[in-house]
Amino acid sequence: MGEQPIYSTRAHVFQIDPNTKKNWVPTSKHAVTVSYFYDSTRNVYRIISLDGSKAIINSTITPNMTFTKTSQKFGQWADSRANTVYGLGFSSEHHLSKFAEKFQEFKEAARLAKEKSQEKMELTSTPSQESAGDIQSPLTPESINGTDDERTTPEVTQNSEPRAEPTQNALPFAHSSAISKHWEAELATLKGNNAKLTAALLESTANVKQWKQQLAAYQEEAERLHKRVTELECVSSQANAVHTHKTELNQTIQELEATLKKKEEEIEKLRQEIDNARELQAQRDSLTQKLQEVEVRNKDLEGQLSDLEQRLEKSQSEQEAFRNNLKTLLEILDGKIFELTELRDNLAKLIECS
Predict the structure, then answer these.
(1) Do the beta carbons of residue 124 and residue 154 sit within 8 Å?
(2) What is the dihedral sign for C-alpha 332, 335, 340, 341?
(3) Max CA-CA distance within the chain?
(4) Can you tell me whether residue 19 is helix, strand or coil?
(5) Residues 54-100: pLDDT tens digits?
(6) d(Cα 113, Cα 3) in Å, to the nearest integer?
């Protein structure tokens, strides 16, 4: 049956900086499609996003995950398997709320699926009264390739005497072998996606070098202010004055942090404006190409029109020459007719005279 998308939206994708664990690193240059996928073979839900052919989100939803709204258009969740925190920036509060509702819905569905899987494992591990013994319970996809939270270990009970039918004993092993091959292919795909994600992380780390420099400058300023506070606390003998200076310095630190946040927002706005400018440039290039094509076609039509005008002039000159020839023939014919008329009159006179 495979994995099918069940809900999609568009957002800007971010990941937490693996070094500082505080700053956001953009993993997409513009808004990309973020989709919820349901894998019916494993009965799990995943969040997947691609930037071209590069996977920038590949997160399996588990019951212990939580999606947090940090602002009107921004939300985040932590993925312990990927050892990172994902962040999404939406174009409106409505899209953020809709994504959060779907996250909670699929998280609850993942919890119910886990409970049902555990109940199924417990039922299959209990001996049946009608049978003399139980065969080893078949492996489920969750037990083969699940996470630490999703993985369940089926209990194995063995009968004192093996069953007589070898074909029935061979069915679970054949099924397990087929599932193992399927998940080996899935593991290879995940390794490829992991390599792509690693390359994307390295690229994003290079792009935030300037941010790190600004942050280092602010941190140095904060450390200098903290040292100043310590010096004042050591030197000053008046506790109230030291407390006042400390409060002012802490306020300055908060103002610097607010300024840093504003700078990050301005950088994000500039990035969006750059993306819009690139789109406009692409549209302008396309229109320019179309205009050039129209000009070439117009030149071709002008050449055809000039050729037709020359043909028309030639045809008109030929018709004029033909008309002149006809006029000359008519004049000659009139002269011949006049001469014949005179000849007839002379013959008639001769006949009368004779």
Answers:
(1) yes
(2) positive
(3) 172
(4) coil
(5) 889 999 999 999 999 999 999 999 998 888 999 999 999 999 999 99
(6) 16
Alpha helices in 31-125 (DSSP H): 93-125
Q: What is the mean pLDDT of residues 128-144?
A: 37
One-letter-per-residue 3-state SS of the chain = CCEEEEEEEEEEEEEECCCCCCCEEECCCCCEEEEEEEECCCCEEEEEEEECCEEEEEEECCCCCCCEECCCCEEEEEECCCCEEEEEECCCHHHHHHHHHHHHHHHHHHHHHHHHHHHHHHHHHCCCCCCCCCCCCCCCHHHHHCCCCCCCCCCCCCCCCCCCCHHHHHHHHHHHHHHHHHHHHHHHHHHHHHHHHHHHHHHHHHHCHHHHHHHHHHHHHHHHHHHHHHHHHHHCCCHHHHHHHHHHHHHHHHHHHHHHHHHHHHHHHHHHHHHHHHHHHHHHHHHHHHHHHHHHHHHHHHHHHHHHHHHHHHHHHHHHHHHHHHHHHHHHHHHHHHHHHHHHHHHHHHHHHC
Task: For residues 177 and 173, give the distance between their C-alpha atoms in angstroms, rounded to a whole number.
Answer: 6
| Residues forming a β-bridge with 140 | none
- The β-bridge partners of 34 are 9, 49
Cβ contacts of 132 within 8 Å, gap of 6 or more: 159, 161
- Dihedral sign, Cα of residue 327, residue 333, residue 337, residue 338: positive
Rounded to an integer, what distance in angstroms lies between the CA atom of residue 88 and that of residue 65? 15
Model confidence pLDDT, tens digit, residues 26-36: 998 889 999 99
State the pTM of this model. Answer: 0.37
Candidates 71, 63, 68; CA nearest to 45 is: 63
